[in-house]
Design a protein that fits this description.
The protein is an all-alpha fold. The protein has ten helices and no strands.
Length: 224
């Protein structure tokens, strides 16, 4: 297992396209639900335990070698918003492009052939982690961190929030992030014998509704 590979994959400068997405923070800022560090922390905590947990479990399952096509269908079923499904596949396509150049592997080529328009990003993340020699816990940690790191970074740009305060939010959430990643890994291990239905399907209706509203904005800073 390469800890250096984990750092590369989790690095915000890795060209996976995440910088263009706010994880729902742009819509939340406009609606007034995020307006300072405290409300950012509340938003990120909610996202971590819903969308973050679901993504982390899918990524962990893919890193374990479960069928990506089955997991992609499971991801679709767990993403009721068409706008978020489109965003997830675009992010998956961009991540796969970067992963194939960074860690060439037959399983990444097979995934690209099977999903020319992009698989869901958490599934691609898990297959990428596997190609990089990482385990399911690593994949779960990256997915969980992305679920809060993206909104925190976006809020700095959207509100001019002090980046030190945004970093403090992420640091305070670290114990919960570890717990979510561990829960996701346990679920992925069960999925090997019990199938993908045992993977978390935590719901976040407000994120889904906001994503659909955001997608109709004529002017926006972030793609989602």
């Amino acid at each position: 297992m390469s800890r250096a590979a984990l750092l590369v994959l989790a690095d915000g400068r890795f060209p996976a396209g995440g910088h263009a997405h706010s994880g729902g923070a742009e819509a939340a800022c406009k609606a007034g639900r995020i307006h300072d560090a405290t409300t950012l922390e509340d938003f990120c905590r909610g996202r971590l335990h819903t969308a973050g947990l679901t993504a982390a479990a899918l990524a962990a399952a893919a890193a374990l070698g479960l069928d990506p096509a089955v997991l992609d269908a499971a991801a679709d079923a767990r993403t009721p918003s068409p706008a978020l499904r489109t965003a997830a596949r675009r992010l998956g396509r961009q991540l796969l492009r970067a992963a194939r150049a960074t860690w060439p592997a037959a399983e990444l080529e097979a995934l690209a052939a099977a999903f020319p328009r992009g698989a869901h990003q958490p599934v691609v993340l898990g297959v990428t982690a596997r190609a990089a020699g990482l385990g399911p816990g690593d994949a779960a940690h990256v997915a969980a961190y992305e679920s809060v790191g993206g909104p925190a970074t976006a809020t700095v740009r959207l509100l001019g929030l002090d980046p030190f305060e945004a970093s403090g939010v992420l640091a305070r959430l670290a114990p919960e992030l570890d717990a979510v990643a561990a829960r996701a890994e346990r679920a992925a291990l069960r999925a090997r014998s019990q199938g993908p239905d045992v993977l978390p399907a935590a719901s976040s209706p407000l994120l889904d509704i906001s994503a659909e509203v955001h997608a109709d904005w004529p002017v926006r800073l972030f793609a989602s």
